[in-house]
# Entry
Amino acid sequence: MTKQHLGVCYYPEHWTEERWAQDAAMMREIGLSYVRVGEFAWSRLEPAPRAYDLGWLRRAIDTLGQAGLKVVLGTPTATPPKWLVDLLPDMLPVGADGRPRKFGSRRHYCFSHEGYARECERIVTLLACEFGAHPAVAAWQTDNEYGCHDTIESYSPAAVRAFRAWCERKYGSIAALNEAWGNVFWSMELTDFDDIELPNLTVTTPNPAHLLDFKRFSSDQVVAFNKRQAEIIRRHSPGRTILHNFMGAFMEFDHFDLSADLDAAAWDSYPLGFLERSPHDEAFKLKHRRVGDPDFQAFHHDLYRGCGRGRWWVMEQQPGAVNWAPWNAAPAPGAVRLWSFEAFAAGAEIVSFFRWWQAPFAQEQMHEGLLLPNGEPGPAHREVAGIARELEKLNAQVETQRSPVVLIFDYESAWAWSIERQGQDFCYFDLVLEFYAGLRRMGFSLDIAPPTAEAVRGRKLVVAPALFCASADFVEALQESGAAVLLGPRSGAKTTDFQIPPQLPPGALQRLVDIEVRGVESLRPNAEVEVANGCFKGWREFIAPRAGAAAELRSVDGETALARSGKAFYLAGRPSKELLATVLRLVAESADLASIDVGDDIRIRDNGPVRYIFNYGSQPVDVSNAVGDNRLLLGEKILPPCGVGAFRFDERL
Ligand code: GAL
# Structure
């Protein structure tokens, strides 16, 4: 079993060399084990073309290693230096407005530029050969946050060329592409693959099938870019974990696809920044401004555990106020500990904080770290030391088991519904997160997985909202799994070519729930449709159950709101929290799954035989019922705000 550890992100190039040993000693002193370095250091590693200076990095890694720290080495390809941009000016990404983005921050490259990709291979090969066998190097991070600052899609000449070739590989003939895209509409028919343009700067909406293929292509470009780095590292640095640090609520490429070339997935968790950027209402944001959304972090933990096929880390954990959200609150006392244990409860191998020192210069000088800008310990420093002691005491290990409940998450669905919202507030991610939160309020520890046969094998309950197109394999696997299934809204609404299926939605999913979706309407704010103890908001469908289905719930206007065929259900709208709770209870009962109601503030997560209990509310909560006669390893039965309780099912008082 893998022991759970803490780490930190460190930029030796920002500080004088004399300070490195002291920093390393201080990191060890508070119980950190891992340190990530190097991911933005290209201008210091290669100050001029082919003029390398790797000595300082070797000395930094040696210093950290001698202190007993393990190093995660980042490839510096998110920040190409000025001389490289001057040499290859057309490597800059081009925005949808047709203008190149400039040098002067980061991520200024186009994924389709072959010249830049070769420069990346060169620097990654150099680093992998130089440091791949270093005893302190335990892991590698490829690049940094692919897609951050809206950088997946580029409308450059290189992208247009690559997109045409991608379409040719996919369709074989231009006639097949015209057919799939429905180009007869508005005389959009093309005669040659060279006629294909990128879907920007059109007079009105481009063809959705064109847009979806461009998103699929852009995703494939990122996957291919990453794969080149991963292969080089694997060749020259055997036995080290290769990972990438993904982001939160980020859907612009398929993270499952990309992770197939990694050993583990990682993500960067900024609970307070993400809360401020979320669509939650003002009351929710005010209530949670110092602790974050109780479900947002956990959702990503489960998502990235799925991406990493069980292996995942938090690469960057917010330790204090950040600088990039509309408002940047300081975490509540205990919140950093709460977030860290929520991650460990979901099976994180490492939780690593961003960053060690707060930088007194440049773009992120208002972003707090574990140390103040003068190098003295800041508020999070002591909290982190406490977490390290508790981890040690718990002898915390990754013990996550496959859950009987799986939530399906599909990047293509996110793309499809961003292309065709139909109601301006329809958002796939928000909808899936609502279902996730609903399941968590029932006390379930979930898995999140893509729509594949493997994902549903052996499950008792499969929940798949808004899955835009289900493959025949997936439908068959669902039928064979014997699991209870909750679908909709918008599930099976399109074919893979972004057309309405000939048999009407939910298309192939009719084999599970025997209904036809005969119409939809989007609902402006406050135009709600009452159902049971709640309502549909934002979205509702008019469905007709056929011979094999019956209406389980109806809206007050007499329409079928929840249809059922055996253990398979179709929900015909976006449910309010109350309606969702009712529906999930019904579905869980049909799956024979016992659930509890933990309410809004308490959350539960099982890491194998260890149950964690978290209090995200502002009042102490008596959790005696949940603890029963188990011996608490962490926390007390009256759990204070930000409190963490933990016990083992196999250890009673
Ligand atoms: C992440 C990024 C870091 C740093 C951090 C600030 O998105 O990977 O380099 O910018 O945000 O919160």
